[in-house]
Specification:
This protein is α+β, with helices and mostly antiparallel strands and 119 residues long. The chain is 26% helix and 25% strand. It has a 5-stranded antiparallel beta sheet. A two-stranded antiparallel sheet has the order 6-7. The termini are far apart.
């Protein structure tokens, strides 16, 4: 059975997608609006459902921001969170991994095939 994704809120900024981290810091103190967003998905507030994330986005994010609710996944290899389309592991052709680990596996396979050709 496939694991259900979690969700984060992304907004469009000049430098790319930023993620909503909430209105309070780790001590429970109010964050100023500019500190309520991070360029790192690991900092993002994570929601269990698309509907919950959409509700928060509509109530907490200013209307002038372009915003999305994005599925967030945990890579089983590197343990990092990622958004977007997962890659399929070449090791078993079943496991969904982050794009970075997918590229790493592809480069390792290319290296092995080139090495075998030169032997």
């Amino acid at each position: 059975m496939k694991k259900q994704p979690k969700y984060v809120i992304g907004i469009n900024k000049e430098s790319g997608v930023w993620f909503y981290v909430g209105t309070k810091d780790h001590k429970g103190e109010d964050l100023i609006p500019v500190h309520q967003y991070s360029s790192v998905v690991d900092d993002a507030m994570v929601y269990d459902s698309h509907e919950e994330a959409e509700r928060v986005a509509n109530s907490k994010i200013p209307r002038e921001y372009i915003r999305w609710v994005l599925a967030v996944y945990d890579c089983p290899y590197c343990k990092r969170k990622f958004v977007g389309y997962p890659a399929l592991s070449r090791k078993d052709n079943k496991t969904e991994i982050c794009p970075d680990c997918g590229v790493k596996e592809a480069m390792e396979a290319l290296y092995r095939s080139r090495k075998n050709l030169s032997d």
